[in-house]
C-alpha cells in the first residue's frame, strides 16, 4: 500500500525548499564570518543566530515531508556567493535573500493550491507568515543602516549599529518547539 501522501511534484519542490533553507543558513554563516572578521561582532552574532533559524526552517520542512510518507533527498548546497562589499551591501543582500525565499515559498503555495493538497497548503501558511517577519527583519536592518549613512556610514555609526544589534533578542527557536499555532 502506498502511504506517500505527497505528489512527486510537491515532494520534489519541498525537497528543493529544504536545500534553499540550508543555503540561506550557509549564506548567513558566510556573511556572519565576513562581519566578524571585520570586527562587527554584534551584527555577526545576529546573523549567526539567524543562520540557526534558517536551519530550523529546513528541519521543519524535512519533518513534514517524512510525516507525509514521502522521501527526503538531501542534495548539495550551492556556494553562498561572494562576500559583501560593505555592511550596507550585506544588509541589501540579506533583504534580497529573504525576498527570493518568499517567492519560492509562494510558488510552493500555488503548487499545493493547484493540486488541492490542502495539508501542504495549510503547512505552508506558517512559512508565509514567517516570511513576512523575515522580510520585516531584513527591512529593519536596511532602515537602520540607511539612518547610519548607508554606504557612507562612518566608523562611529557602524560601531553603534553593531552594539545595537548585539542586544537584539534571539529569534532562533528549535524546530520541534515551533508549531502553526505557536510560530
Ligand atoms: Fe527561512 Fe529567512 O527564510
Task: State the main characteristics.
Ferritin; 5 helices; binds MU-OXO-diiron; 183 residues; mainly alpha
- The poorly predicted ranges are none
Oligomeric state as shown: single chain
How many domains? 1
Distance from N terminus to C terminus (CA atoms, Å) equals 34 Å
Number of helices: 5
Written overview of the protein:
The chain is mainly alpha-helical. Helices cover 69% and strands 0% of the residues. It contains 5 helices and no strands. The protein has helices at 8-37, 41-67, 87-114, 118-147, 155-166. Helix 3 (87-114) packs antiparallel against helix 4. The chain is elongated. The structure holds MU-OXO-diiron.
Topology (SSEs and partners):
Blueprint: H1 8-37, H2 41-67, H3 87-114, H4 118-147, H5 155-166
Helix pairs in contact: 1-2, 1-3, 2-5, 3-4
Can you describe this structure in just a few lines?
This protein has helices spanning about 10-35, 40-65, 85-115, 120-145, 155-165.
Amino acid at each position: 500500500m502506498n502511504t506517500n501522501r505527497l505528489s512527486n511534484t510537491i515532494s520534489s519542490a519541498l525537497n528543493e525548499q529544504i536545500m534553499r533553507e540550508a543555503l540561506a543558513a550557509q549564506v548567513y554563516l558566510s556573511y556572519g564570518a565576513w562581519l566578524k572578521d571585520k570586527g562587527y561582532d554584534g551584527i555577526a552574532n545576529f546573523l549567526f543566530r539567524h543562520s540557526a533559524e534558517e536551519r530550523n526552517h529546513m528541519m521543519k520542512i524535512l519533518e513534514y515531508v517524512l510525516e507525509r510518507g514521502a522521501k527526503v533527498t538531501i542534495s548539495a548546497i550551492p556556494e553562498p556567493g561572494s562576500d559583501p562589499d560593505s555592511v550596507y551591501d550585506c544588509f541589501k543582500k540579506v533583504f534580497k535573500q529573504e525576498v527570493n525565499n518568499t517567492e519560492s515559498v509562494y510558488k510552493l503555495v500555488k503548487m499545493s493550491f493547484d493540486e488541492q493538497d490542502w495539508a501542504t497548503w495549510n503547512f505552508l501558511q506558517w512559512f508565509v507568515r514567517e516570511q513576512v517577519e523575515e522580510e520585516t527583519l531584513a527591512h529593519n536592518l536596511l532602515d537602520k543602516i540607511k539612518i547610519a549613512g548607508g554606504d557612507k556610514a562612518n566608523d562611529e555609526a557602524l560601531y553603534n549599529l553593531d552594539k545595537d544589534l548585539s542586544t537584539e533578542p534571539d529569534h532562533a527557536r528549535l524546530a520541534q518547539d515551533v508549531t502553526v499555532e505557536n510560530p
